[in-house]
């Protein structure tokens, strides 16, 4: 067989593709639970978004947040280490597909995401969509924001982004990689409001010292969940059982209140994240 430049390039491409596929296949073939135990760690997607995930700037360690607490509890249940892996809300599903993470907490089970990832039936927690707006901005309903002169920041490729696109399309919607960047746009005055679910806004308002948190009407409340790789029924069932325990035992609310207290906030002043307590 004669190998010319074109043939060599094709063979090299096939070899590279095979190598990439091979790096993902062992975990998929063995199943996530087996792969996690063999590796000795549960890889949890994390992104700077208090109160869900928070990195200690002094140490660079992911030390607090509801997602961090849930990840550590799940790792402990499996007898392995908690291994945080930095992603963004928009790249979390791709990170699951490419076998870079095993799970991502506080990810809404949208119809679009369900095509690429699996979600347990049990909710992780509930929250309401809200905005942190300028003090002088008049807003009580979503329609108040549906104007061309209103600038709103939001993390891209999220359920919040989808909601704004469908309900306040006339506004100037500015999309950012994550919560931190969206909040920074509000802090710098580049936008009039930032749209997130209410818990992160409580932490942001505390840090910024200005702005007002509004839950516009009609109120948009929904559950959030945890995403895992598609097609692994055993791992989905395990995660479902863990989330059910976190929710029904009140652990998820306790972790939330623990973060708020550590952040200098009174948990009693914040809406709960368990639906039955709302």
UniProtKB/TrEMBL annotation:
Residues 1-29 form the signal peptide. Keywords: Signal. The keyword Signal applies. InterPro entries: Solute-binding_3/MltF_N, TAT_signal. The keyword Signal applies. It comes from the Bacteria. SMART domains: PBPb (SM00062). Residues 41-263 form the Solute-binding protein family 3/N-terminal domain. This is Amino acid ABC transporter. It comes from Zhengella mangrovi. The lineage of its organism: Bacteria, Pseudomonadati, Pseudomonadota, Alphaproteobacteria, Hyphomicrobiales.
């Amino acid at each position: 067989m004669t190998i010319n430049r074109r043939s060599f390039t094709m063979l090299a491409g096939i070899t590279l593709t095979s190598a990439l596929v091979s790096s993902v296949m062992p975990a998929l073939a063995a199943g996530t639970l087996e792969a996690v135990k063999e590796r000795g760690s549960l890889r949890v997607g994390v992104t700077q978004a208090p109160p869900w995930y928070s990195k200690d700037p002094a140490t660079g360690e992911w030390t607090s947040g509801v997602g961090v607490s849930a990840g550590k509890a799940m790792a402990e249940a499996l007898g392995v280490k908690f291994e945080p892996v930095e992603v963004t809300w928009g790249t979390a599903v791709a990170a699951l597909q490419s076998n870079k993470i095993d799970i991502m907490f506080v990810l809404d089970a949208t119809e679009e995401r369900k095509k690429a990832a699996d979600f347990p039936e049990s909710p992780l927690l509930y929250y309401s969509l809200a905005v942190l707006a300028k003090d002088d901005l008049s807003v009580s309903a979503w329609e108040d924001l549906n104007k061309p002169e209103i600038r709103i920041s939001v993390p891209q490729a999220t359920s919040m982004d989808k909601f704004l696109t469908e309900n306040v399309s006339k506004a100037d919607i500015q999309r950012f990689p994550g919560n931190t960047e969206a909040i920074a746009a509000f802090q710098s005055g580049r936008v009039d409001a930032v749209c997130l679910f209410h818990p992160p806004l409580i932490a942001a308002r505390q840090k910024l010292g200005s702005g007002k948190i509004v839950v516009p009407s009609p109120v948009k409340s929904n559950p959030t969940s945890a995403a895992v790789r598609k097609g692994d029924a055993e791992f989905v069932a395990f995660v479902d059982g863990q989330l059910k325990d976190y929710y029904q035992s009140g652990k998820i609310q306790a972790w939330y209140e623990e973060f708020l207290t550590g952040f200098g906030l009174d948990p009693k002043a914040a809406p709960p994240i368990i639906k039955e307590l709302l």
